[in-house]
Amino acid sequence: MNTYLYHLEFPVGAHFGRQGIGLEETGETVPSDSLVSGIVNAFALMGEAEEVLHELGGASPPFVLSSLFPFGPGADNGEKPLYAVPRPLSSPPVKDPRLLQRAGKDLKKTRYLQPRDVLRWLDGKPLSAKDLEAIQERTRGLARPWDGESQDGWSATTLRPRVALDRASQGSTIWWCGVVHFRRGAGLYGLVRFRDDTWRARLETALRLLGDMGLGGERTYGLGTFRFGGFLPLKDVWGELGRPQEVGRFVLLSRYVPAVTELARLRETLTAWDMEESRGFVVSGRHALTLKRKRVRCLTEGSVATEPLAGRLVDVTPEHGPALGLPHRVYRSGLGFWFP
After folding, report:
1. Share above pLDDT 90 across residues of the chain, in percent, rounded to a whole number
2. Which of 140, 259, 268, 337 has the largest count of CB atoms under 10 Å?
3. H or E stretch at 311
């Protein structure tokens, strides 16, 4: 299997909704199930959605996508971008357990690591106090907030005003929508692993179309449109880190729902994990419908396992969807993308 990295740049900003009430909050990442849904909608406009879903739902999906994470320039990194990888939820191996007592709170606050530090975290070789300090120092350069003017930081969140009109009285109510803006040279990156390289050109076409359609919310106002930079071999971007590694643990870089055949192995395979509920409205092609899809609980990015687990697609079609005019089934991706 060949692994590639790609960059997405959002020139006008984006709104990546979070669970809860209101649109004021916006995330800086896109989970893999949302990304796959957007790509399938792009394939639907090309008349290829049924084939794509059939292949992704099979025993050997032709490609598996990670979630989207931030990338941006480093203060001392020249033109070479830095990549933020979710911190593994497991504790790092240390020479002295007292190190975790002293540094535990700071480590828990750390959201991202550089790729090389993720491998150090997973390879099982004990880390010294100096190693942990070096890792924490490198994390300070990742996904930094940007004030919109300086050359420091990657992204900034602003609130954009909106007005709602009452249908009966025409009374107005102001509300706010959160928008994330990325500075020049920053954006989101993703990883894709191909079992069948003949799908690479087709996925490139779908991503370019999705770039025109937009990703996330508030697409009516132009948010979420992006420039797709093409697929780059991971070994050309991350060097030796992009090649197969001999490690005893793997970190999850996507949402994951276990396949039926994997359920019995979860207890002995997972060493650290967290879960999140995926829910929302059905989107078909370019149209959002007033139908809520079924909820599904997924393992989240950063979960750690002793072997890579495949996962599956989940049917989240609303109970009475066909009777309410929904012409197709609705699926959510729980295919696991594990690193390394």
Report:
1. 41
2. 337
3. strand 311-315
